[in-house]
């Protein structure tokens, strides 16, 4: 009996906003795992903004598999450390099944009372990014005031909420629509928020933080960074968060802030960071955050589309900003 | 008997390069110290580039005293902690004598075999700036490669030499003339140096550091900073050194580097610092450096002008770049 699996391939480079016709669904024969490998059935796939950049990149090849973060279950195993039933995280998304080596996966230990999907979001790289940015990079102290840009995004909303759990002082966020701003203050516990399209960011931030800020969690650079440098107090810190993919292929990088030299007189620390450098913080992070996810003190924003065939539409909808929070596709029940 | 002392006053704002006519020597009556005060006879006065900026600043007032770092000897005391003969550091320079409170001075303990003048230079704020920039801010590790801008300047030459004593890998400097470049490599122990006026800094730095650098000790910002960001390795650090006076009154701040966003992908830390925040490092610093000054492993670059009447010419000569190293005026013998 020949088995098969479904996958999505990119068939051309999108011109501007991607369209359905840029992708195709394919069915391919499914081989069993070789020695040291496992066959994984995917449960959740994540579709993320950074994928749009990759579709333009020099590495692009027609018909190649698409990068994507996924959670799946081992259904056949020739790897002793990964018995059947193990839940794993991996990066071979946009497909229903994948044959993977031990080095390609990270074991995820499900927790009672926590939806598995959280391990692709607030308990995954997203939350870990927010956590290490606040604790290791910015070294946020209790009572310190924080500003987060792109605060309604996956990392930003985690950063704001985790800062609250770390006993930050005022938590201020910026976002790109009135609805998102309202979501920040009414649902996510931000003390103040503003729409960065409503006027000069410098003025909006100074109004939201009249006494200044201690830490800026930067997801965007550019004008936001300049405004934060102006408003930061002496010895302020900036954790500049980056997804490699976002910055590797940048034709139009964010402008450098005109006031960068102010970081000298204010003795500000500006530090770029990549979550991949902080895998050793994961255990501490999960110990810290799992109780808060279970208790509901953390709001997990996610939109779940049902069934693998929905993935292209889910991706396009995410790019159009139709969803709040992370967009996931449920391939098969947990 | 009325006693008197000599001082220099600024009588007008310099237009461009200062001239002798912008200053006048005055003789004023010398009062004795009040309770808790001491009368200090100055031994060494330092004239520094930052003073030029202050002469334009909003605080400027005709006939006001000029800021200046000084070493002097207590010759009358009504402060128990500062007996006659105590050597003190203070900031009321450009005069032969000063009445000062306990809070205005810092006691300096002379060391056998170390010229007192070193405490205004490599053993003073200059050296401390270099030391904390390397150890506390950049956290330079043995074997790491370093680039220093304005490396023939007081802070830069200390940074390069101290880095060598901290067992840095390659130490590379930039300076503004061929003579200074030669001084760096032949006298100060730099492994490589270049004249930043010889071509694009990015190209000169890449040539001097073909395998990259780990730490950039930044004294200038602008194009040097952009070049360093390009050449820094993953997890590089930048210690951006500032004299407050240099940056507070800046009409023409250094341009922001166009490639600032690169610090995200490289996870670079860019940190501004002010030596005044690191006074608690002074004891550790002196313990570390004094043996090297005494043994001659540190080259102390200084030009000493003899006699208080030389101070204006010494200052003007320093601004014209006539001297290598710090310019001091010896008011009275040690």
Please count the helical segments of chain A.
10
Poorly predicted parts of chain A:
244-249
Full CATH superfamily name of the largest domain in chain A: NAD(P)-binding Rossmann-like Domain
The total of beta strands of chain A comes to 15
**CATH hierarchy, class of the largest domain in chain A:** Alpha Beta
What is the subunit organization of this protein? Answer: homodimer
Summarize the biggest pleated sheet of chain A: 7 strands, mixed
Distance between the termini of chain A: 27 Å
Most extensive chain-chain interface: A-B, 31 and 31 residues
| Approximate shape of chain A | globular
Annotated CATH topology of the largest domain in chain A: Rossmann fold
Order of helices and strands of chain A: EEEHEEEEHEHEHEHEHEHHEHEHE
Evaluate the radius of gyration of chain A: 21 Å
Total domain count of chain A: 2
Helix amount of chain A, in percent? 25-40%
**Which secondary-structure class do the elements of chain A indicate?**
alpha/beta
The CATH level-2 architecture of the largest domain in chain A is identified as 3-Layer(aba) Sandwich
